[in-house]
Design brief:
321 residues; alpha/beta; 2 domains; four-stranded parallel β-sheet; 8 strands; DUF1722; 2-thiour_desulf; DUF1722 domain-containing protein
Length: 321
């Protein structure tokens, strides 16, 4: 696979780039460090970039009348307008991006786990939700990929994240060309991956590519992008992965022994039962594709949608489907 197009990601500065946390700290992250060679990072700290000092008093999200604001927990000073001023300019100047990696549990950058309160008085949070910066991001980019470094310790979430950002970066390059031929090349390279993700949206993408009507590039690329984001929303089910593997095996099954075929079946069954990660049967089938020189399959992103060097299963998350 060719990974010439690097995903462009916005990332929290405190995740290994700058000591800008509320306590003056920095958090190094092995996964993010490994990513540096394969993506372009745009760093941001909405708190310090909007003028707040380091170190600083803890900020708190206060919800009143179904609206969330950001205040200094010790004084009650409202810094929402200051943050919004920075955020509006930052997002308007941003340009093309493929996703975000933000600091978990942060009142500005928390993706799902920022604590939300009703006042600065002592007491438990009423719920957890999006940080104020993330709320503004999703208002402007409703389909954008946003993850935090905590969730990315989970192998399945990380695998889905990597697949999406590399596929979308490749599409971004095709869209920039405004060329139907490059869009078709992109589509063909991802055919099996798209089938694993969603048969429904895969067929809709097919209909755009193979429509014989006159090609309206703006309309086709915009429609394609809309369906592509929908297709990539959810990680493939293990049954879908198996179905695509079986489709690939059909290309060489008549050229291998019964014992080899049985071994493949046994390996897929182990994956189905959650005993091995998907990479085990995937690599096994890919070995046969290389052996029989099946170029039309070896170039499929399904077998390696992102650089192999980014695959790490030794984390605290769930390894299998």
């Amino acid at each position: 696979m060719n990974y010439d197009v690097k995903p462009i990601l916005v990332i929290s500065k405190c995740l290994g780039f700058e000591a800008c946390r509320y306590n003056g700290g920095i958090e190094n992250n092995v996964f993010i460090e490994n990513l540096r060679n394969y993506v372009e990072f745009i760093t941001v700290c909405p708190e310090t970039d909007s003028g707040l000092p380091v170190p600083r008093d803890v900020l708190r999200i206060i919800q009143k009348d179904n609206k969330c604001g950001l205040v200094v927990s010790t004084t009650g000073q409202d810094v929402t307008a200051k943050l919004d001023g920075f955020t509006e300019k930052f997002l308007s100047d941003l340009g093309d991006i493929d996703g975000f990696i933000l600091k978990n549990k942060s009142p500005t950058c928390g993706v799902k786990d920022a604590k939300i309160y009703t006042s600065i008085d002592k007491g438990a949070a009423i719920k957890r939700g999006k940080g104020v910066f993330v709320q503004r991001i999703t208002n402007k980019y409703p389909n954008i990929i946003i993850e935090d470094e905590g969730r990315l310790t989970n192998f399945k979430i990380r695998e889905h994240f990597l697949t999406r950002i590399f596929v979308l970066a490749s599409f971004r390059e095709a869209k920039k060309s405004n060329d139907k031929g490059k869009l078709k090349d992109f589509h063909l390279k991802n055919t099996l991956l798209f089938l694993a993700y969603s048969q429904k949206y895969s067929k809709l993408l097919d209909s755009l590519i193979y429509n014989d009507d006159s090609f309206n590039s703006k309309m086709v690329f915009n429609e394609y992008e809309k369906y592509l984001y929908k297709l990539l929303e959810r990680a493939p089910r293990y049954t879908s992965n198996i179905n695509v593997l079986l489709k690939s095996i059909d290309s060489f099954k008549d050229n291998i022994t019964q014992e080899e075929m049985q071994f493949i079946w046994n390996t897929i069954d182990k994956y189905k039962k959650g005993l091995v990660p998907f990479s085990v049967p995937l690599y096994l089938v890919k070995g046969y594709i290389i052996r029989f020189d099946l170029d039309y399959l070896s170039n499929q992103s399904f077998f390696m949608p992102y650089p192999e060097e980014l695959i790490h299963v030794n984390d605290s998350g769930k390894l299998i489907h």
